[in-house]
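From the pipeline queue, job 12 of 40. The input is one protein chain; the requested action is below.

Action: predict structure.
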Amino acid sequence: MSDDLQKELGVVRDEIDAIDAQLLELLNRRARCAQQVGEIKARHGEAGFIYRPEREAQVLRRIQGLNPGPLSNENVTWLFREVMSTCLSLEQPLSVAFLGPLGSFTGSAATKHFGHAARLLPQSSIDDVFREVEAGHAHYAVVPVENSTEGAVGRSMDLLFSTPLKICGEVVLRIHQNLMTREPSLDRVTKVYSHAQSLAQCHEWLNRNLPNVPRISVGSNSQAAELAMQEAGAAAIAGEAAAERFNVPILVANIEDEPNNTTRFVVLGRFDAGISGRDKTSLIMSAPNRTGSLHNLLLPLAEAGVSMTRLESRPARHTLWEYVFFVDIDGHRDEPKVAKALAELQQQAAYLKVLGSYPAAVY
């Protein structure tokens, strides 16, 4: 390395060192401010409200609006989520129940929303995820509600009908499937482990690249990754988090047949979220069994100028051949036009339950 090159690099590296020192000072200043927020809340009897979804969404949107680059908004959002997560943990680490095990896509969604400082509590079923928060053993829950290729997650929808918990956030996660193995090439792979749904999502890729290799369905992608690490010739299809957790090299990335495969998750807690400025409200409702009843049920939304972004029907479990409707609308339940529409819906609907108002996902 020439003297001139070393001199030029030295100038830039000195500047980086100075910036790092400034960053460290600013991060600790922010942490002290977060501690002050906790102390103020405690003095006013609101110590339980340590996490405010609407405030976090506002901060992230503001940062994205200020971002001049070259860092992408996605990278900046990730960095600031981790800063907020770490600062929040100084008050009290958040505990988050999710459909496990560790390394699952739902775990990745929980980490994306709450950051790495949150304490993740993997559960063996969606029912257990709900119960963990309902019983007060966890602050929040993260559960999948719909997939762009597979549709609604039925068990989550059924439990939303009866739970006292409120939807206070949402997470949208792009689902990337990866082939991971200790083997150096595809021709050394003798079997592929994965969850049945992931095998289905990679069906065409497997037909093209590993047509004669047995596909073995297991309970989770995390279990598949663990088996791939233990067994010679074995490969797994799983997400990046599973590869990192079990230290399995990814041989081929992004092998899913549908490149835009995306899953939407909701965050559940015991408290409503406040208005963030870009919100959604989720409802469950049913219409009387007569001609035009669904049209009449949706009319208050149209008349109030409230946009409906999702309408999903589910069989009503208590009555044969009757249905309930899961509806997402734009806006917060406390905004005047949404409140007016909900009041009119209450008069029209045979049944109405507001599942919660929450900030729209920040990407």
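Job complete. The CA atoms of residues 82 and 116 lie 7 Å apart.
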